[in-house]
Amino acid sequence: MAARMQQGGPGRPTGTRFAQFKLVLLGESAVGKSSLVLRFVKDQFDDYRESTIGAAFLTQTIALDASTTVKFEIWDTAGQERYKSLAPMYYRNANCAVVVYDITQASSLDKAKAWVKELQRQANENIIIALAGNKLDLVTSDPSKRAIPTAEAEQYAREANLLFFETSAKTAENVRELFTAIAQKLPLDQASGPRGLGARGVRQGVDLRPETSASQGAMGGCNC
Ligand code: GTP
Ligand code: MG
């Protein structure tokens, strides 16, 4: 696990906990992965977003309660088929994943299921996976646009042991709830110990990136 946990520390009173986790977003192109991240990190939405090239990196910190802060290091991958082979680089060592589909596009759930299978076979064995059915606003305004019934996706998520939310990056519905539910499921209590030690007290390597509270960058280009 690439989780890191700090008790107290500079600027943090003793008794507070700070944990850092790697999160990866996967899913078919145009389902709204980057839009969900943009909503979560900057509380913004673009009607016309360009497709991600390679992957984008962003961070966001949330307070779970008065004494627990969770920082997500987010890899927003590109859904276009030509970038598929890059994905293992981003989900390797991820603590959690959001697999996104578009509730108005039936094929996007099949693609999401394929990603879940790949994660369950090849990613970290304790990875926490959330399934997000995005573009909820489109069916709220026109129910005939719905291609995937909530109950169908919910049942699949239950069987595959996934968190499940229908979201709208456009209206922000359930976006914060999605990331908060993931944070609540992460192994915060096991992840204690000095900085640089992971959930099982195993050194995880050195993070050479500078610390920022809400930074963003890119691998192979960023469109955020
Ligand atoms: P790739 O980077 O190609 O993998 O796509 P992506 O999954 O990152 O999709 P992106 O966030 O770029 O969104 C694709 C399009 O869908 C954009 O035009 C967004 O404005 C639109 N979109 C994303 N989320 C929503 C949503 O919740 N509701 C609506 N109505 N449109 C959305
Ligand atoms: Mg994108």
From TrEMBL:
SUPFAM superfamilies: P-loop containing nucleoside triphosphate hydrolases. It is found in: Cell membrane. One of its GO terms (molecular function) is GTPase activity. One of its GO terms (cellular component) is endosome. GO terms for biological process: protein transport; vesicle organization; vesicle-mediated transport. It is a lipid-anchor. Keywords: Cell membrane, GTP-binding, Lipoprotein, Membrane, Nucleotide-binding, Prenylation, Protein transport, Transport. Belongs to the small GTPase superfamily. Rab family. This is Ras-domain-containing protein. It comes from Aulographum hederae CBS 113979.
